[in-house]
Amino acid sequence: MHYYKFSIGDYRRDAAHLSLIEHGAYRQLLDQYYLDEAPLPLDADALCRRLSARTQEERAAVAVVLAEFFTRTEQGYIHQRCDEEIAQYQDRAEVARENGRLGGRRRNENQTPTDSGSKRKPTGVAKDNPAGTDLGSEREPSRVANHKPRTKNQEPDAVADGFWDFWHAMPKQCQLNCKQAKAAWNALAPDEELRAKIMGGLAVMLKSPAMTREGYRFFPKAHAFIVNERWLDAEAVQAEDEPEWLRGGKMV
Q: If DSSP codes are grouped into helix, strand and coil, which group holds residue 160?
């Protein structure tokens, strides 16, 4: 992502107590997260190098922000708000690609083509204002801005425990349609024992040359991995035997 929305109100509410140097570290970390669309690396030296944090004070600021606003996982430091924004961006990008393959965005069926031979001048009278009253600047905007800061209890698209660990563990090439994957995960609602089996099976498959060849071309996509219970194939993969659905180079 080379662009992301920044809510000044939300940021000030959560981070107003930071020092100036800590604010700089936080913004750098957010920018890096969105650029990579992935968790931040656990290697402190490598991360500080990428952020140009060279002095002891700058490195300490990075450590403070990571500890307060990010969650350390095996895949790296994750940030829930960033993950939600990235998932929405990737979903929109996937829709745009699909529209492109279909020849562009479909026109509204109720839309009628305009007569190119005649150009009507605007009358200045709104359809919902037949009396012709000048509404001017008093007309209400089509979309009302939300002035209430979003709290943890108001986060949209709630997802069952463990989803983001699973999502970040999946190869990036297989992270297609986060919305569908989240819906499948919520429907499955795995308990702690099942989550351990899923992550264990995924870890085994990630180490398999047969599964990861050709840039993960034959690796199950995130949604398919969940709904088709692909973690159960880990035993066959570990025994160096391709699962039945993979034989013959079948993609999922």
A: coil
